[in-house]
Protein backbone atom coordinates (compact mmCIF):
# COMPACT_ATOMS: atom_id res chain seq x y z
CA UNK A 1 0.00 0.00 0.00
CA UNK A 2 2.86 2.37 0.85
CA UNK A 3 4.62 1.67 -2.45
CA UNK A 4 1.37 2.19 -4.36
CA UNK A 5 0.91 5.54 -2.66
CA UNK A 6 4.52 6.68 -3.12
CA UNK A 7 4.73 5.57 -6.77
CA UNK A 8 1.18 6.42 -7.84
CA UNK A 9 0.87 2.86 -9.19
CA UNK A 10 -2.18 0.86 -8.14
CA UNK A 11 -1.83 -2.02 -5.68
CA UNK A 12 -3.41 -4.30 -8.29
CA UNK A 13 -0.78 -3.36 -10.89
CA UNK A 14 2.06 -3.80 -8.39
CA UNK A 15 0.71 -7.21 -7.46
CA UNK A 16 0.40 -8.24 -11.11
CA UNK A 17 4.01 -7.11 -11.71
CA UNK A 18 5.29 -9.05 -8.68
CA UNK A 19 3.56 -12.22 -9.89
CA UNK A 20 4.87 -11.79 -13.45
CA UNK A 21 1.31 -11.46 -14.78
CA UNK A 22 2.06 -8.22 -16.68
CA UNK A 23 5.01 -6.65 -18.43
CA UNK A 24 5.32 -3.10 -17.06
CA UNK A 25 6.18 -0.15 -19.28
CA UNK A 26 9.30 1.98 -18.80
CA UNK A 27 7.16 4.87 -17.56
CA UNK A 28 5.55 2.69 -14.89
CA UNK A 29 8.89 1.22 -13.78
CA UNK A 30 10.38 4.71 -13.48
CA UNK A 31 7.60 5.64 -11.05
CA UNK A 32 8.31 2.53 -8.97
CA UNK A 33 12.07 3.16 -9.05
CA UNK A 34 11.54 6.79 -8.02
CA UNK A 35 9.49 5.66 -5.03
CA UNK A 36 12.59 3.76 -3.87
CA UNK A 37 14.86 6.72 -4.64
CA UNK A 38 16.63 4.94 -7.49
CA UNK A 39 16.85 5.03 -11.28
CA UNK A 40 15.23 2.62 -13.68
CA UNK A 41 18.69 1.16 -14.37
CA UNK A 42 19.33 0.51 -10.69
CA UNK A 43 15.92 -1.07 -10.16
CA UNK A 44 16.33 -3.45 -13.09
CA UNK A 45 19.95 -4.24 -12.23
CA UNK A 46 19.05 -5.14 -8.66
CA UNK A 47 16.26 -7.37 -9.89
CA UNK A 48 18.30 -9.17 -12.55
CA UNK A 49 22.02 -9.09 -11.81
CA UNK A 50 23.61 -12.04 -10.05
CA UNK A 51 27.13 -10.66 -9.58
CA UNK A 52 30.53 -11.48 -11.01
CA UNK A 53 33.45 -9.64 -12.56
CA UNK A 54 32.65 -10.27 -16.23
CA UNK A 55 29.44 -9.47 -18.03
CA UNK A 56 29.05 -11.97 -20.88
CA UNK A 57 26.71 -10.90 -23.68
CA UNK A 58 24.50 -13.98 -23.36
CA UNK A 59 24.11 -13.35 -19.61
CA UNK A 60 23.42 -9.58 -19.73
CA UNK A 61 19.91 -8.72 -18.60
CA UNK A 62 17.75 -7.41 -21.44
CA UNK A 63 14.41 -5.71 -20.91
CA UNK A 64 11.90 -4.53 -23.52
CA UNK A 65 9.23 -1.89 -22.89
CA UNK A 66 6.06 -3.42 -24.35
CA UNK A 67 4.57 0.03 -25.01
CA UNK A 68 7.43 1.61 -26.98
CA UNK A 69 9.81 -1.16 -28.08
CA UNK A 70 12.57 0.46 -25.97
CA UNK A 71 15.20 -2.24 -25.39
CA UNK A 72 17.61 -1.92 -22.47
CA UNK A 73 20.71 -4.14 -22.12
CA UNK A 74 22.71 -3.91 -18.91
CA UNK A 75 26.35 -4.21 -20.05
CA UNK A 76 28.19 -3.68 -16.75
CA UNK A 77 28.88 -6.54 -14.37
CA UNK A 78 27.21 -6.26 -10.98
CA UNK A 79 29.33 -4.23 -8.60
CA UNK A 80 29.25 -1.47 -6.03
CA UNK A 81 30.88 1.00 -8.44
CA UNK A 82 28.97 4.24 -9.05
CA UNK A 83 29.06 3.58 -12.79
CA UNK A 84 26.90 1.39 -14.98
CA UNK A 85 26.99 1.00 -18.73
CA UNK A 86 23.60 0.52 -20.39
CA UNK A 87 22.81 0.09 -24.08
CA UNK A 88 19.40 1.34 -25.14
CA UNK A 89 17.81 0.76 -28.54
CA UNK A 90 14.74 2.64 -29.67
CA UNK A 91 12.65 1.94 -32.76
CA UNK A 92 12.48 4.82 -35.23
CA UNK A 93 9.93 7.39 -34.07
CA UNK A 94 9.61 5.96 -30.55
CA UNK A 95 9.18 8.40 -27.68
CA UNK A 96 10.01 7.56 -24.08
CA UNK A 97 9.44 10.07 -21.29
CA UNK A 98 10.87 9.89 -17.79
CA UNK A 99 10.05 12.40 -15.06
CA UNK A 100 13.00 14.65 -14.25
CA UNK A 101 12.60 13.89 -10.54
CA UNK A 102 13.67 10.28 -11.13
CA UNK A 103 17.09 11.48 -12.30
CA UNK A 104 17.57 14.61 -10.18
CA UNK A 105 20.46 13.24 -8.11
CA UNK A 106 22.46 11.27 -10.66
CA UNK A 107 24.57 12.08 -13.69
CA UNK A 108 24.08 10.32 -16.99
CA UNK A 109 25.92 10.35 -20.27
CA UNK A 110 24.48 9.49 -23.66
CA UNK A 111 26.63 8.21 -26.51
CA UNK A 112 24.67 7.89 -29.73
CA UNK A 113 26.05 5.03 -31.79
CA UNK A 114 23.56 4.94 -34.65
CA UNK A 115 20.56 6.91 -35.91
CA UNK A 116 19.41 10.25 -34.52
CA UNK A 117 18.10 11.11 -31.06
CA UNK A 118 16.20 14.20 -30.02
CA UNK A 119 16.76 14.43 -26.28
CA UNK A 120 14.71 16.99 -24.36
CA UNK A 121 16.18 18.42 -21.19
CA UNK A 122 13.79 20.95 -19.67
CA UNK A 123 13.03 23.44 -22.45
CA UNK A 124 16.12 22.53 -24.50
CA UNK A 125 16.02 19.91 -27.26
CA UNK A 126 19.39 18.35 -28.06
CA UNK A 127 19.56 16.75 -31.50
CA UNK A 128 22.19 14.00 -31.25
CA UNK A 129 23.92 12.41 -34.23
CA UNK A 130 26.17 9.29 -34.30
CA UNK A 131 29.29 9.88 -32.20
CA UNK A 132 27.68 12.61 -30.06
Question: How do the strands and helices of this protein lay out in sequence?
Answer:
Layout (H helix, E strand, L loop, with lengths): L1 H6 L3 H8 L7 H10 L4 H9 L13 E3 L6 E4 L11 E4 L27 E5 L2 E5 L4
Antiparallel strand pairs: 1-2, 2-3, 4-5
Summarize the structure.
By secondary structure, the protein is α+β, with helices and mostly antiparallel strands. It has four helices and five strands.
Task: Describe the 3D structure.
This protein has 132 residues and is an alpha+beta fold. The protein has one domain (2-128). It has four helices and five strands, in the order ααααβββββ. It has helices at 2-7, 11-18, 26-35, 40-48; strands at residues 62-64, 71-74, 86-89, 117-121, 124-128. The strands form two sheets. A three-stranded antiparallel sheet has the order 1-2-3, with helices on one face. The protein has a two-stranded antiparallel sheet with strand order 4-5. A hairpin with a 2-residue loop joins strand 4 and strand 5. The longest helix has 10 residues, at 26-35.
Low-confidence stretches: none
| Domain module count | 1
Number of helices: 4
* Principal-axes shape call: globular
Mean pLDDT: 84
**Sheet having the most strands:** 3 strands, antiparallel
The largest sheet has its strands arranged as: 1-2-3
Strand content: 15-25%
The helix content is: 25-40%
